[in-house]
Q: What sequence folds into this?
């Protein structure tokens, strides 16, 4: 992941992994990834695709209800890191709410790489 500049020394919070394309790229860097997916129907596909990968934690939860501070802090402590990175391709309709949730957590994240979907209608 060139844009996120993450690697094996990083803990990454991925919001909305979907089918796992970005997840695969993140794992390819050696990072530990916490993938938070709201859509319950995508969870079995993610688990099957990444079965046995010890660097991936899949959470079936709406990011707005997910305890980001607790889960990311736990991963940071477990992996001996200082701060994490957020990587996401946010849907247009939740962008503001997600950013409002994450921005006050600057002590937890060293970087936030967010791709925004544009609503052209």
A:
């Amino acid at each position: 992941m060139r844009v996120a500049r993450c690697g094996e020394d990083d803990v990454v919070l991925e919001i909305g992994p979907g089918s796992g394309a970005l997840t695969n790229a993140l794992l390819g860097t050696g990072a530990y990834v916490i993938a938070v997916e709201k859509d319950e129907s995508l969870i079995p596909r993610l688990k099957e695709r990444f079965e046995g990968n010890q660097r991936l934690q899949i959470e079936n939860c709406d990011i707005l209800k997910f305890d980001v501070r607790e889960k990311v802090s736990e991963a940071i402590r477990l992996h001996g890191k200082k701060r994490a990175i957020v990587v996401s391709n946010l849907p247009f309709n939740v962008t503001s709410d997600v950013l409002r949730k994450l921005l006050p957590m600057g002590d937890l994240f060293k970087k936030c790489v967010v791709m925004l979907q544009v609503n052209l209608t």
The longest strand covers residues 109-116. The first helix runs from residue 21 to 28. The chain has a mean pLDDT of 91. The chain has one domain: 11-116.
